[in-house]
Design brief:
This protein is an alpha/beta fold and 327 residues long. The chain is built from eleven helices and twelve strands. The strands form two sheets. Strands 6-7-8-3-9-10-12-11 form an eight-stranded mixed beta sheet, with helices on both faces. It has a four-stranded antiparallel beta sheet with strand order 2-1-4-5, with helices on one face. The chain starts with a strand and ends in a 13-residue tail after the last strand.
């Protein structure tokens, strides 16, 4: 059995605002094994990105995290900024959402790549140059020696995204977090980036967290999927099970609103309404107001996340645990 290298226990993220406290993530429990790809999906504002920004120590000044987030047994949430600097980039890396703004426009690609190796692995400039160029080639950048000396604005969006992936992988981290890595890219480049992640995961045995609002993007890459809504996980399942037999009404609604090659666009069903205000969450299920099958109990009782089958959990009062065949 592969050992878990990353684990969160009761991870909660709060923000102080002029209008009151916002709880962006509520009691998240998550485990990831080496070489595994876990997808975190949900609409904007569901808490996907804030979960891992908190783990990386990158929350805004008005944010705070509680609970545990351990990487190989070391709790990242209890570390000082100086201690975190040792782990960020070396053991845990993040590919940020926007390739257009994720790189420093005033520094050449060369400096942005080699700094990581010089700081975390003590490489000389010559050694760092050699390894950085090799990594650019690994992520599919054509003519890497020439592009190594360029500024970010001289590269296309797809190439900038590959540079960010190369930067994140230079120290061969144990955990790589990719936050909406294909959002700003056209469909062809999206497919190339996803193929790149699959290849790199095999070569480096890196655990990968893929954050996305689009279930279709993660279908061919993830091993497991966590579906988040209003700061909470509402369903967890192996990727094939989730697509073949979604359980939570929100997961079903997400799938029904996602374009597929075997479905006419006219048959897409948008999710009605809006996500709830995180400052004033309803008493019961946060999805009840948008749910087509909600009952009165759903508006009065908040459903716990419970096991419903092997390797599957769901937070819905109307979903029953599956009966298992006797051994």
């Amino acid at each position: 059995m592969t050992e878990n290298i990353f684990k969160t226990e009761g991870l909660t993220v709060r923000f102080d605002t002029p209008d009151g406290e916002v709880q962006a993530v509520s009691g998240l429990n998550l485990e990831i094994a080496a070489g595994e790809t876990v997808a975190i999906v949900g609409e904007s504002g569901s808490g996907k990105s804030q979960t891992f920004l908190s783990v990386m120590g990158l929350l805004s000044k008005n944010g705070r995290a509680s609970g545990k987030a351990t990487l190989e047994g070391r709790d990242l949430l209890t570390m000082s900024a100086r201690e975190l600097d040792i782990y960020r980039g070396r053991d845990i890396s993040m590919v940020f959402q926007d390739p257009m703004t994720g790189l420093n426009p005033s520094l050449k690609i060369s400096r942005q790549l080699t700094e990581t190796l010089e700081v975390h692995q003590g490489c000389t400039r010559a050694e760092a140059d050699k390894r950085a160029i090799a990594m650019l080639e690994s992520v599919g950048i054509p003519d890497p020696k020439r592009r190594f000396r360029m500024y970010p604005h001289e590269l296309s969006g797809g190439m900038r995204q590959r540079v960010m992936i190369a930067m994140a992988l230079l120290c061969e981290p144990k955990l790589l977090v990719a936050d909406e890595p294909t959002t700003a890219l056209d469909v062809t480049i999206q497919a190339q980036i996803l193929e790149l992640f699959a290849d790199l995961k095999k070569r480096f045995n890196t655990a990968l967290v893929l954050i996305s609002h689009d279930l279709g993007v993660v279908a061919g890459l993830a091993d497991r999927v966590f579906v988040m809504y209003a700061g909470c996980v509402v369903e967890e399942a192996p990727v094939d099970d989730l697509f073949e037999n979604p359980k939570h009404p929100y997961t079903k609604a997400l799938l029904a609103s996602t374009p597929r090659i075997d479905t006419d666009l006219e048959n897409l069903e948008p999710i009605p309404g809006r996500p709830p205000n995180l400052q004033r969450l309803p008493k019961g299920c946060a999805f009840a107001a948008r749910c087509s099958v909600a009952e009165q109990q759903c508006r009065e009782i908040r459903p716990p996340l419970k096991g419903i089958a092997e390797k599957r959990t769901c937070a819905c009062l109307l979903v029953r645990a599956e009966e298992r065949e006797p051994a």
